[in-house]
Design brief:
6-stranded antiparallel β-sheet; ATP-binding; DNA repair; DNA repair protein RecN; ATP binding; P-loop_NTPase
Length: 556
């Protein structure tokens, strides 16, 4: 439960620290004094969104922290342990908002995300606002209330998630089936292309080898002639070749006298040149012997290259790209042919997903019927005590034609306000006052079954007065017996039922406005109850009435 709250520079609150006890705490005050400021501040500690406007004028930041005793709430302990945030028997939530609008959140002194703050906050406090009856007219809100009352929220979420899974599979299956005719044509085309490329059977590096061999075979005759011409110049020509000329040069030089060192070097070099020329001529002769024209092979090569080039042009790619084209065509063909098998697999998955969805939704329907009947009976009992003694309250489960994300049924609240009248949807017949009473009745019923330790009712008694207000006060006090209830009220009959009474007042000092909160006891509380009873001045009669109301509460 909430044990304390500290508020600094929030709205018109300069500094405020309050401690709380179990039971019902009422908060009252003049209009505009800031009765709901504590609720607003607590909402920020629970993860609500905010902006720079909440920071007190002239200050750098607003700082709010709330401390909770969680020793009797193991689910909160577990949540904190899983995130290494456990701190004895307490959970401290803190929110800091800068004047620039930036926000920081903390759990037990450690920085956290707003999502985590909201998650743990939802397990600690439940706030019922004064406009809650407006959402009561929406079917979605009604369905959520039934699920929350029956502890079916997790099951409902599973149905919604399974519905999304099934819808995705169903859409994939439909798209796959619609594409089947196009796939057949595509498979036929790819099969032809794959067959053609497989028949071509192009090998890695084959084009380069063929082109080199083609160039070689095409130039054999010219190569033979040039090799013959070169060997003639070296040794075979009768009109003077290099080797015979070198012989003559060597003979002439050998006859020179005296033979000097330079002459010996020259002779040596000419002999080397002669030997090299002879060896070169031998190599050319050998080369000529290896050259053999092969017109049949050349025709085969040119035909093969022609097939390759034609196939490349047909597929609008370069010859070198035919290998990768074959790979991609075969891969796509395998994928499409495999999709025929995957179509069956997808169909099976879709059917299994639908079976799981219907099983979950059927279980949800069965439990909703039990929960909605129990909730309707208890709400009806509550609204009878709230000045609608003849009202009949029903919760209708209208079966849908097919399963939806919310299950097999459409849930709607029905009311028959007077005897003999047929039940009609709440949104069509209930007046504003009736809506307030029905909403309060539902909140009180659901509060009795809630596992959340702290419940806040922010002016939920709007539109209620007199004896009904006293009934409301007793309802809230009974809810407070199981834990902790806060009630912001302007009704004396409700305020008198509180175990604690806080009064909010507005103070203007040095042209600055601030809100103050004080715990009322004895005479101060009597005067506040008397003020709530009405009148410009407190008379002895209203004070006596206030004392009587407080005394009657103590005698209950």
């Amino acid at each position: 439960m909430l044990t304390s709250i500290a508020i600094s520079n929030f709205a018109i609150v300069e500094s405020l620290e309050l401690e709380f006890k179990k039971g019902m705490t009422v908060i009252s005050g003049e209009t505009g004094a800031g009765k709901s400021i504590m609720v607003d501040a607590l909402s920020l500690c629970l993860g609500d969104r905010t902006d720079a406007a909440v920071v007190r004028h002239g200050q750098k930041r607003a700082d709010i922290s709330a401390s909770f005793d969680i020793q009797n709430y193991p689910h909160v302990h577990k949540w904190l342990e899983e995130r290494d945030l456990e701190h004895d028997q307490h959970c401290i939530l803190r929110r800091v908002i800068s004047k620039e609008g930036r926000s920081k959140a903390y759990i037990n002194g450690r920085p956290c995300t707003l999502s985590d703050l909201k998650d743990v906050g939802s397990q600690l406090v439940d706030i019922h606002g004064q406009h809650e009856h407006q959402s009561l007219l929406k079917k979605n809100a009604q369905r959520q209330q039934v699920d929350e009352y029956g502890r079916l929220t997790e099951l409902s979420k599973k149905v919604s998630q399974q519905y999304a899974t099934w819808r995705q599979l169903k859409e994939e299956l439909s798209a796959q089936q619609n594409r089947s005719s196009e796939q057949d044509a595509k498979i036929q085309l790819l099969s032809y292309q794959a067959q053609e490329l497989q028949q071509l059977d192009l090998k890695e590096g084959e084009i380069e080898e063929l082109e080199n061999e083609q160039a070689f075979l095409s130039n054999i005759a010219d190569s033979q002639f040039k090799a013959y011409q070169a060997s003639g110049i070296l040794i075979d020509s009768d009109e003077g070749n290099i080797c015979s000329l070198l012989h003559q040069a060597i003979n002439s030089a050998s006859q020179i006298r005296p033979a000097t060192k330079e002459l010996e070097n020259a002779l040596e070099m000419m002999n080397v040149a002669l030997i090299q020329a002879q060896e070169a001529a031998d190599s050319l002769h050998h080369y000529q012997d290896t050259l053999e024209q092969n017109p049949e092979r050349l025709i085969d090569i040119e035909r093969r290259l022609s097939d390759i080039y034609d196939t490349a042009r047909k597929h609008r790619t370069l010859p070198e790209g035919l290998l990768s084209l074959r790979e991609s065509v075969e891969a796509e063909l395998d994928s499409l042919q495999g999709s025929e098998e995957s179509l069956e697999s997808l169909k099976e998955k879709e059917e299994l997903a639908y079976e799981k969805l219907t099983a979950l939704a059927t279980t949800l329907t069965e439990k909703r019927i039990i929960a909605k009947d129990e909730l309707a009976q208890k709400v009806e009992e509550q609204i009878h005590g709230l000045g609608m003694p003849y009202a009949r309250f029903f919760i209708q489960c209208q079966p849908l034609n097919q399963v939806s994300a919310n299950g097999f049924e459409d849930i709607e609240y029905m009311i028959a306000s007077n005897p003999g009248q047929p039940a009609q949807p709440l949104r069509k017949v209930a007046s504003g006052g009736e809506l307030s009473r029905i909403s309060l009745g539902i909140q009180v019923v659901t509060a009795h079954t809630s596992i959340i330790p702290t419940l806040v009712f922010d002016e939920v008694d709007v539109g209620i007065s007199g004896g009904i207000a006293e009934v409301v006060g007793r309802m809230l006090r009974s809810v407070g017996k199981r834990g902790q209830v806060f009630c912001v009220t302007h009704l004396a009959q409700v305020a008198a039922q509180g175990n604690q009474h806080l009064r909010v007042s507005k103070l203007v000092e040095d042209e600055a406005t601030s809100s103050q909160v004080e715990l009322l006891k004895d005479q101060d509380r009597t005067q506040e109850i008397a003020r709530l009873l009405g009148g410009l001045e407190l008379t002895e009669q209203t004070l006596a009435h206030a004392r009587e109301m407080l005394r009657n509460v103590q005698l209950q």
